[in-house]
Amino acid sequence: MIVFGKNPVIEALRSGRSVEKVLIAHDSHPPHQVLKLCRERNIKVQKVPRQKIEELAGTKKTQGILAMLSPVEYVHPEKLFRETLNRSSFFLTLDHITDPQNVGNLLRTCEVFGGVGALIPKDRACPINETVVKASAGAIFHLMLSKVGSLSKSLRVFKEMGGWVLAVERGGKDIREFDFPGACTLVLGSEGDGVSKSVLDVADAVISIPMLGKVNSLNVSSAGAIAMWQFLVKTLDKLQGVGYNIKPTVVKGGAEIGPVGKT
User: Fold this and answer.
1) What is the C-alpha to C-alpha distance for residues 171 and 126, in angstroms, rounded to an integer?
2) What pTM does this model have?
3) Domain 2-69, CATH among 3.30.1330.30, 3.30.70.420, 3.30.230.80, 3.10.20.30
4) What residues contact residue 84 under an 8 Å CB cut-off, 6+ apart?
5) Any idea where the domains of the chain sit in the sequence?
6) Sheet containing 90-95: which strands, arranged edge to edge?
7) Fold agreement (2-69, 77-262)
8) 3-state class of 47 per DSSP?
9) Those residues with Cβ within 8 angstroms of residue 222's Cβ, 6 or more apart along the chain or in another chain
10) Which CATH architecture best describes the domain 77-262?
């Protein structure tokens, strides 16, 4: 959702709604109250050309300021972690993935395979916008999302609570042979850079998808889908033991998968 103009942006910030970021035109001076509210709520402020703001707003009458509101409410990371541990399930850690189609596809697959939600960094990450919602086919509304300043610090907290951090990256253990330990996060990096070093340093294990073709990488949403499926297959008995109801569904081609849901 887009809000533009000084007063509407101020009221959006004062309301407590989840704001992804505030855009300010290079040639304008943002109101002091906007900057103060953004500092208090730890919301990113970004200077951009006025033309970009006008394109997003669909009008030239923007007063050089625009706020991007999230269609979902974020939860505290420890709430996401506790739910994952209670359900012996998984959540995704999206390590600076910027493409909204990939983010939406990953969240859709996460929900279908019984995942709890996703941990997202505040910087260099795709905003949760209408494109992500559409790509997720609405699955995003059934997930817990948490946005944090530092992925590595948050993941250390998850480990201290008893969770496992598993990075899906090249050069690790064959995912087919990996024994998933239970409640965990599957870390997926951007297609250009992969999983960042600071997150790899926190990881309990690196797991890799074997590839036989000449192309040496998968689209991140495809890699994530394979990793989530492997988690489901390896932990099926555990999931059924904590109240999951797994009903085969026939899809195109006659294949049978999920959905996975709580009974």
Assistant:
1) 26
2) 0.76
3) 3.30.1330.30
4) 90, 91, 116, 158, 163, 183, 184, 185
5) 2-69, 77-262
6) 144-148, 117-121, 90-95, 184-189, 164-174, 205-208
7) no
8) strand
9) none
10) 3-Layer(aba) Sandwich (3.40)
- Please state, in angstroms and rounded to a whole number, the distance separating the CA atoms of residues 25 and 46: 9
Per residue of the chain (263 residues), give pLDDT as tens: 788 888 888 888 888 778 888 999 998 888 899 999 999 988 889 999 999 999 988 889 889 999 988 878 889 999 999 999 999 999 999 998 989 999 999 999 999 999 999 999 988 888 888 788 888 888 888 999 999 989 999 999 999 999 999 999 988 999 999 999 889 999 999 877 889 999 999 999 999 998 888 777 788 999 999 999 999 988 876 655 555 555 555 454 544 445 555 54
Q: Which residues contact 230 (CB under 8 A, 6 or more apart)?
A: 175, 176, 178, 180
User: Can you read off the two tokens belonging to residue 226?
Assistant: 């394979």
Write out the two tokens for 101. 């189609």
